[in-house]
Known about the structure:
Order of helices and strands: HHHEEEHE
Helix content: 40-55%
Structural class: alpha+beta
Number of domains: 2
Shape: elongated
Largest sheet: 4 strands, mixed
Strand content: 5-15%
Strand order of the largest sheet: 3-1-2-4
Radius of gyration: 31 Å
Amino acid sequence: MRTARLRSVHPVLWAGWAALAAGAVLCVIGWYGVSGERFAERQLPYLASCTVPGAALIVAGAVLLAHGRDASATARVEELYGLLVAAEDGEPGPAAAAPVAVSGDRLMVPGGTLYHRADCPLVAGKPEAVPADSRVLAGGDLGPCPICEPDAGDGPAAGPDDRSPR
Length: 166
């Protein structure tokens, strides 16, 4: 798994990390050379040959890393866009594989504004969730959950006698 992950890393990211490492090494060598010299005219060769190119490599590495991360983020966005277009075209995809909830029973949370299917992830496992009776559903006090879409199915609580006509 680790090798697959390493192969999927964009080459620009590798170049960025290499430039950053080389720049850091050059800066350390330049600092060490400058620190050993007492006079400024003897420090200039270390600045010119190590420290300045090291700083330039660090900047170049940072730019390459920013570009590489942006490219990989763009690739992920394009992949998600492709999945969205495939879902809109009606092609079966992972996003449209299964409905979120299929139970016919309707639940509500006291004080809430929505009613849900019993297996909706928003109310599943909550001890305070109670069955939504037909009076509450018919009165229009609660709206349907946009995630589990309780009006989309034909469960026992969604019959024509349980809801008022609109």
